[in-house]
Amino acid sequence: MKHIPKGLILFLFSGILLAQDTYPPPTNLVTIPTAGTLVRGSFAMQIHVQRNGGLTSGLKVGITDRFQFGLSYGAGNLIGDDSLRWYPRPEVNLKYRLIDETTSMPGISLGVNTQGFGFFNDADSLKRYDIKAFGLFLSASKNWTTPLGNMGFHGGMNYNFTETLDGDEDPSLFIGFDLEFNPELSFLLEYNAALNENDLKARDISISRGGYLNAAVRWTFVERLHIELDFNNLLFDKNRVDYFNRELKIIYIEYF
Description:
It is a single chain. The radius of gyration is 19 Å and the shape is globular. The chain has 256 residues and is mainly beta. 6% of the residues lie in helices and 49% in strands. The relative contact order is 0.16.
């Protein structure tokens, strides 16, 4: 081993973990936003099947290579025989990439996402989703190549300015990573600290036990079509829910 030139070792190591300028990171992991944006002239349609028959559909469009715009809408109990619980309004998703990713710096994006998760609780004074939306967020992403495929680390902070009637207006933090096993299969893991859900009133409907740990397997079934199986709220509160959530996403990306 001592006879192998140091330059060759450095070359091999850099080939394993070499940061890329051109790899476009995903625009979202399971729920958290990344610094990635859709390229100009592309759009992504998503159907998200949630617990208790909830379903959310959304459309995002790449206006420029840095700016994307999207809308989403849905309802709880959409699948099943219970009464529908429509969301009160369409929700917005905006993101602008401030800084491009380089070999030494992560990409950084600023955005707004008002779409929460689960039921919208409008029968009481809280007026919020089971899991709050991210609201205003700042996210960073850094990607490397590995022998398996791309590996990305993502993190940021957020402030929800629309769901504050529970009295908890704290900013929060999130972090996660994605890893490609091959061009078709990826593994996603994330943690949303949910620091804006630890107020006494918020605990009345909070279903986590100290933030949300989520995982997912994303399968590129055919080109541009992704099927994702989510395992959400792995740190669930056993006093409020019996088990973690199994959810499904279908994402289709096209160009015009």
